[in-house]
Design goal:
single chain; about 170 residues; alpha+beta; eight-stranded antiparallel beta barrel; two-stranded antiparallel ribbon; 2 helices; globular
Length: about 170
């Protein structure tokens, strides 16, 4: 390889690197989740608050989820100005929990048995679920070992349930 080829390769790598990192770390156009109910209300996407019958909510003898805050909000994304909000017609349920309560979620166990209705992690201690409709006052999920979302989940894989109730 001559110097011209090396320079061309080096420039291509540098430009690719810069484009990748400038687009990946820009919030503009990315979906957003409010950090708490207060932010959700500030962005005017808050719908309602949810709670559990007892806190922490015991799924079974070994799993529990402490619900610090749970709320339903309109889905939204960041526009050019991150202090503004672009709102969608769909919804997201966000649950602030404790990091130790959701350890192993999405790998060893999953909340939900259907690819259209399940809860996933969105940070070390936060959970999220998407809805293309306004959910009812009670939202119930089956909890399974593993993370099978195709076909019917065997009954022996169901290890509990997780229920959220709209706060009045």
């Amino acid at each position: 390889m001559n110097n011209l080829d090396l320079k061309l390769i080096s420039n291509t790598i540098t430009i690719s690197f810069l484009l990748f990192f400038s687009s990946c770390y820009s919030q503009q156009g990315h979906n957003g989740t409010s950090e708490n109910i207060e932010e959700s209300k500030k962005r005017k996407v808050f719908i309602c608050e949810y709670t559990v019958s007892e806190n922490p909510f015991r799924i079974n003898d070994t799993l529990q989820i402490t619900v610090v805050e749970a709320w339903l909000e309109k889905q939204w994304k960041y526009p050019k100005d991150p202090n503004e909000t672009v709102i969608y017609d769909e919804f997201q349920l966000i649950i602030n929990s404790k990091e130790e309560d959701i350890e192993g979620l999405d790998v060893k166990w999953s909340i939900g048995v259907d690819a259209n209705k399940y809860i996933r992690t969105c940070s070390k201690s936060d959970l999220i679920s998407d809805f293309n409709y306004l959910p009812t006052d009670t939202i119930e999920y089956l909890v399974q070992k593993g993370n099978q979302f195709k076909g019917e989940v065997p009954k022996e894989n169901i290890i509990g349930r997780f229920v959220l109730i709209k706060k009045r």
